[in-house]
Amino acid sequence: MIAEIIATGDEIRTGALVDSNSAYIADQLEALGIDVLRHDTVGDNVDLLSAVFWEVGRRADIAVVTGGLGPTIDDLTTEAAARAAGVRLKMDEVALQDIIRFFEKRHRTMTDSNRKQAMLPEPSQRIDNPLGTAPGFSMHIGDCEFFCLPGVPPEMKRMLEDFVLPRCRELLGRKAEASCIQTISTFGLPESTTGEQLDGFNDRFPDIKLWLRAKFPEIQIRLYGRHASEAALLNEMKAASDWVREKIGHRVFSIDGEPMPAVVGRMLGERGETLAVAESCTGGLICDWLTNVAGSSEYFLLGAVTYANESKMSVLGVSKETLDRYGAVHEITAREMADGVRRRAGATYGISTSGIAGPDGGTPDKPVGTVCIGISTPEGSQGRRYLFPFGKRQMNKQIFAMSALDLLRRKLMGYPEKPHMFSQSPPAAADAIKDKQRS
Amino acid sequence: MIAEIIATGDEIRTGALVDSNSAYIADQLEALGIDVLRHDTVGDNVDLLSAVFWEVGRRADIAVVTGGLGPTIDDLTTEAAARAAGVRLKMDEVALQDIIRFFEKRHRTMTDSNRKQAMLPEPSQRIDNPLGTAPGFSMHIGDCEFFCLPGVPPEMKRMLEDFVLPRCRELLGRKAEASCIQTISTFGLPESTTGEQLDGFNDRFPDIKLWLRAKFPEIQIRLYGRHASEAALLNEMKAASDWVREKIGHRVFSIDGEPMPAVVGRMLGERGETLAVAESCTGGLICDWLTNVAGSSEYFLLGAVTYANESKMSVLGVSKETLDRYGAVHEITAREMADGVRRRAGATYGISTSGIAGPDGGTPDKPVGTVCIGISTPEGSQGRRYLFPFGKRQMNKQIFAMSALDLLRRKLMGYPEKPHMFSQSPPAAADAIKDKQRS
Lengths: 439, 439
Description:
Two copies of one chain form a homodimer. Chain A is of the alpha/beta class and about 450 residues long. Chain A has three domains: about 1-175, MoaB/Mog-like domain (Molybdenum Cofactor Biosythetic Enzyme, Chain A, 3-Layer(aba) Sandwich), CATH 3.40.980.10; about 180-255, Alpha-Beta Plaits; about 270-439, Alpha-Beta Complex (Maf protein), CATH 3.90.950.20. Chain A is built from 17 helices and 17 strands. Chain A has a six-stranded mixed beta sheet, with helices on both faces. In chain A, strands 14-13-15-16-17 form a five-stranded mixed beta sheet, with helices on both faces. In chain A, strand 7 and strand 8 (about 145-150) form a beta hairpin. The interface between A and B is large, with 78 and 78 residues.
């Protein structure tokens, strides 16, 4: 079964807005085993829209259209679809009542242009929109079944889920092939090296397609397979996934798309352990990531964003001597920050970052991209230094934050510490300085 | 002049990857005054690719193609373009030398598949790629000039800038129209109400196109105009922008796309004042946003992410009595948090959040979406309560964080406090409770 996807709207045509709807819909259809042939983007132009609908009606079995169902004169999808099919519009009384109720419930005044939204092609089937005023509809243009949905992503997703996907399953009937996607998330190798380590995959697993996807700062390995037999497909996917994990090793941090903060949080939750975080250069990003995970209040006790040295001393108890002697960006300082935040929160673990995110503030000794990461555990504490080759502030914040969480993940998993590709301090150096200073 | 944009690749066709290249290219071409007619997305299929290239060659004056220039057997753009134009491929010696040098410089081994990347249609013009191995090329298919570029965004952008846009300016010659885009950012009204307040815009400014764009949690108003006379266009845009600002009032927080944390940061910097932030439910997001702005260390002194009540007491000095009597989510608690973090950091202002981001933790009194925001200034402190109707954790974190920054912005601008559409506490209520308690 062949599908095409059409995004409409001048915002998308002119590039004022990136169209993420089409990728979402393609992903959902492909997961059902439907071949998505093409996507098309067309602006608010009824002649062109109806021409494209007519073209697609000759090529595809199903088509999903987003956008152009609103109340304004720029919303032309319904008119264009009716024109392409050579049918008229008719007021849909159920849709009209839904719209009237929508406005009543919100004590807002309904306008004539909202009435227009209830005009649907005749014949067509209404697709209810529980989240907004614009109903969708399905109809035939040529031999192709069109599904016209609003462009607002939550409304589109809900109506796809409620109506379009069930209808597609019905159309597929027994012809459905099984398909399967797996996302393996890695951190710590560049995309090119990751690709080189997976050389030979295609010969070994000819039925599985492998893509690398740089979702900075992680590299995702996506496996995609489709097969008449679901059992055969699952076996092949399992073998492929195991092979990839063996090649990439500890740099794989999840095999189901789970993001790093959720991986670390899940491990802490399972152990009944807790975490506190002291951030300088990452500026709250680690805390934000951790608290995006529902239930994080179970294990995340305290975050301290200590930009100023005074705050590092007063909130975290970093010593003035350390700051004077080594500066804010140093393994020793990071270690004291991690110790301090762990102590103040009474947490099992403390992690910390101090570095130069840029664009300013770099020195020859500590250029932009330098970060020191501290980790404090019941068994002791350490500081590490890395230098990343990125000039951009937000990229640096992200890779610094990810490195700190990854260091904690490795500690929790009991992995031996390997030299990191961007390591600047050999694992034992900073600890040795500290011990010397103490003795 | 009519342009079309074609994105190629199975990653995009199947929805594994969102195509942001096409929006970027459309935006750049529209800014030159070129009409982008359609975008097309096609997978790694040489028959379909060449058919689409041939179609577009009949419709458009120029076409920009991204992707499919790599070394693998899935990279088919060059072959498809040659087939659509009915020409052959030929080794481009300059491109080959570039690729050889690229590998030599990185001490990496070049393979035969990399040689393939130097095979270009004959005739065509090579487009140098200073950032990667894949050269691009331009050629005619029908009467349309095609520009084929790699899909890697930085490489595509660089080659667009260096070659495609200058060539487009040349093609446009004296026919070039001036064009102008302005982004007005607002916070505090839903999209529909914002639209209603701008009723009549189209009649008043027929040459300017207005779009609303929900970039949650802000609503952006985008104005787009194109005109033969640049001076006339700038006058019209200025008038349109002033009219919009008068209609929306204090809810406009920037007129050049500047994000809220940068707006607040700029005001603090100009006044030589400083800020400290205490976050509970927003979990570090406010700090992260603030520190994404380069130079924020000048005014941002301290952030405290105090999830646990113990941290609220020990780090911020919130009293045990307040927590026992009112709980963590209350105007009084938020006010004490703001006072506490301001005091600890020695900052001019303190802001705080405490609320229920969800999905769990709501009660009948304090449902998910409730947030209390505190603001502490040299003149005194206040607490406010809001209830937002969003169920999702990350949406709530974002709108809570934005509300806190907006409260500070209004304070800095000296705007009178208006009832917010989601306000739960009348402005004076919490302060009255506090005063009563004190007396």
